[in-house]
Amino acid sequence: MPDAVRACIVSLDGTIIGENRIALPPGDGPVAPIIKAVKRSMRSALGAAARKLLGVGVAVGGMVDTNQGSIVAMNLAPSLDGYPLADELGREFGLPVRLDHHPRAQLVGDRWFGKGRGAAQFAVIYTGEVLGGAFYFDGHLYRGVNGAGGELGHTFVQIGGELCRCGRRDCWDTIATLSWLRRDAQVAGLPDAGETDSGALKRLVVAGDSRAAELADRYAHNIAVGIANVQQTLAPTHYIMHGDVVLGGAQMIEAIATHVRRLVPSRPGLNIEISAGEAGDRAAHLGAAGLVLSDLLQLSL
Ligand SMILES: [Zn+2]
After folding, report:
1. What are phi and psi of 183, to 5 degrees?
2. 81 C-alpha to ligand 1 centroid (Å)
3. Mean of the pLDDT values across residues 242-247?
4. I need a surface site. Which of 122, 252, 258, 279 has the fewest CB within 10 A?
5. Cα-Cα-Cα-Cα dihedral sign, residues 127, 131, 134, 135
6. Distance from residue 149's CA to the centre of ligand 1 (Å)
7. Which residues crowd ion ligand 1, with CB under 5 Å?
8. Cα 165 to middle of ligand 1, angstroms
9. Ligand 1 centroid to 153 CA: how many Å?
10. Cβ atoms of residues 159 and 170 within 8 Å
11. Are 19 and 285 in contact (CB under 8 A)?
12. What single-letter DSSP state applies at residue 77?
């Protein structure tokens, strides 16, 4: 992620050990200290490895080229744009390295260990500082050419809307990430607006704050707009939500589902399902390891 790196060891039975988090230096500064921090986090996790490692899986919160194993662009850490991370880590640790888009790693985690088990198709939507998604269709993870798919945050939801961090206008990212939520929390006069998230909003709603309730519903609607576009285009129909919105609990997930169902024309036999994945990193960690295992076992994902 643009702000921090988290590393761990995943055993073959899906146990996570040695997990750590190291804050990254400014993402617009020199790249060397950023990579140094990534390696430090990995080395710290490696200390917990009792056995030989099979490989390294990396879930990147930015655009990736899965064939090259490089970061294409990370809007909040532009120093990493174009960085050949898989090559660099492979040289350093002498292991095969598999790099993929963060929501796709979460999808692999869900497909092997979570709510996607046994499903023929589903989508993962990640919300937080950034927005992204991943698709599982007819028993296969769908990446698009060189991993270019899933950049949902920069699909367009508005004409004449705001400037996005990617330099374009009107992106879904401008109305459905934490930056939007915090700015509108400020406008609404909510406490600690600059730090707010779906969890804080939920606590205010429970305490009877009507401004928080209105904002939470608007946030749910803005997230639903992008999901409705995905549904109309590809109809994965089952969506597993990860990241910030999970902190909002069942109420937030249900609010998103209600808005999506309202935005998508109904069809007999089509029941759109939105469920909660994880607010934390477990699915991404399991999925990143899953990417390595799939390669080693030459499994189709
Ligand atoms: Zn954008």
Report:
1. -65, -45
2. 15
3. 97
4. 258
5. positive
6. 14
7. 154, 164, 166, 168, 171, 173
8. 6
9. 6
10. yes
11. yes
12. -
pLDDT band at 50 (very low <50, low <70, confident <90, very high): confident
Residue 300's pLDDT is: 58
102-125 pLDDT, tens per residue? 999 999 999 988 899 999 999 999
pLDDT tens-digit readout, 259-278: 999 999 999 999 999 999 99
Q: What are phi and psi for residue 136, nearest 5 degrees?
A: -125, 110
Indicate the average pLDDT of the chain: 94
Q: Beta-carbon neighbour count of residue 161 at 10 Å?
A: 14
Nearest to 65 by CA among 34, 38, 33, 98: 98
Looking at residue 301, its pLDDT comes to 54
| 130 Cα: distance to centroid of ligand 1 (angstroms) | 10
Report how far ligand 1's centroid is from the alpha carbon of 29 (Å): 22
Distance 233 CA to ligand 1 centre (A): 19
Cα 126 to averaged position of ligand 1 atoms, centre (Å): 15
The CA distance from 220 to 174, in Å, is: 14
Q: What is the pLDDT of residues 21-42, one digit of tens each?
A: 999 999 999 999 999 999 999 9
Tell whether the torsion through CA atoms of 36, 76, 106 and 177 is positive or negative: positive
Say whether 156 sits in a helix, a strand or coil.
Answer: strand
Share of the chain above pLDDT 70, in %: 99
Q: How far is the CA of 109 from the centre of ligand 1 (A)?
A: 26
What is the spatial distance between Cα 170 and Cα 225, in angstroms, rounded to a whole number? 13
Between the CA of 163 and the centroid of ligand 1 the distance, in Å, is 8
